[in-house]
Amino acid sequence: MRRAISAPAFLLPITLALVFALTATQMARADDFDPEQIKAALHTATEEEGGFIDNAVSLVNAGTLPRDLFASTFLWARKKPRRKFQYFKQALTLRAAEVGVQL
């Protein structure tokens, strides 16, 4: 005869994993973006490029530019094989204009 798995014992590990994942996500979102890490990931080469990143991060921290818009654009551009910053700048400028933010 097969032994039935009790629901509480089966759900406990899943519930704990979900609580941990949600807590870790909230802690990560609470931190501000680090402009230096973003510059390194996007391979900025000039002071103007670095200034664009600094400006965009300050707009995110001020609440003017949506955090998810910035993050999703960054993640997308970071996957490009070359010219990561140029992809990021063009896409972020266009997407920000759609929500009424001028960069």
Write the layout of secondary structure elements.
Blueprint: H1 7-30, H2 35-42, H3 47-62, H4 67-78, H5 84-98
Helix pairs in contact: 4-5
Q: Can I get a quick summary?
A:
With 103 residues, the protein is mostly helical. It contains 5 helices and no strands. The N and C termini lie far apart (68 Å).
What does this protein look like?
With about 100 residues, this protein is an all-alpha fold. It has one domain. Helices cover about 75% and strands about 0% of the residues. The chain is built from 5 helices and no strands. The protein has helices at about 5-30, 35-40, 45-60, 65-80, 85-100. The longest helix is centred in the first third of the chain and has 24 residues, at about 5-30. The protein is elongated, with a radius of gyration of 20 Å. The model is unreliable at about 25-30 (pLDDT under 50).
